[in-house]
Amino acid sequence: MDERVVQFRVGAVVLTGVIVAGILVALFGSIPNITAPSATVYITFPQAMGVSRDTPIRKYGILVGRVREVEFAPDSGVLVTAEIYEPDKVSTNEVCEVHNGLLGGDAVIQFMGRNDKLPHEPLKSGDRLIGIAAMDPAQAIASLQTTMAGAVSSVTTTSDEIGKLASRVNDMLSNNDEQIARVGNKAEATLDRLYSLTDNLNQVVGDPKVRDNLKQAMLDLPDVIRDTRGAVQGFKTTLETADRNFQNLEGLTKPLGQRGAQLVENFGRTTQKLDNVLDEMQTFSRALNNPNGSLGKMINDPAMYQRVEATVRNVEQLTRELRPVIRNAQEFSDRIARHPELLGVSGALNRSSGVK
Fold first, then answer.
1. Do 24 and 91 fall within a single domain?
2. Which of 134, 150, 171 is the endpoint of a domain?
């Protein structure tokens, strides 16, 4: 065979292999960028079903890294060592979760959501993240199977109960045909009466005057409600005023009740004093009405009245006669005060000018 043909065939095989490898890379992942700086981080999961070396790590469906190692965590759970190709695209507060295929496909670690309680910083080598594990599809199907079994059992029980109820209803209808007929007749008669009542009501309401009156009544209803509210408010105010008056009256009667014994005692003494005064007035009036007493004679005896009147006139006359004497005495004392020499020799030797 010609050497050129062999070389051509080998080149075609190599080219085909490169093309197939490129197609496989495009389908199942991308070639990591060797020039870009990567970060090695550690993710702790409670469990990691299906996670192994080279398990893809995605964010929003885009490949951002791969698993490098899977081992047991020091305390409990699984410790996954991951290489993140673009650490600046992933932050430290993002939550990663393990997802498994529904039909047993390969597992994928997805960055989903953020924990606002953690700091928002780009990933760097050595960072530790906390991951969560999604429910295993097999477990979900088993749980769903258990739930469906309970639901099917409930549906079966409900169907049996509905069957029993239908049987009872059928028996009741079969054994009570006459009663059902009477109920039907009564229902028909009731419907006829209701129809007649509706017709009468329609005739009443259909009258234009009645309709206008009803309309006016509906328009006046807000005013009536407003007036009623005002009356209720006035009645409430009256009750509040009466309550305040009763409280004030209680404030007045309470001290009186507390001092009741003292007030009764004071009232007794006052009554006794008033009784004594009335007795004295009675004695005075009795003495006044006695014709033999002094006051009685003064009131009843005309001679006594005349003597008293004459005495009063004499006193008035004496007062008129004493007025000149008192005036002369005032002038004499004033004159002596001005001219003291009139009283003796010393006054004659020491004459005064008469000016005070």
1. no
2. 134
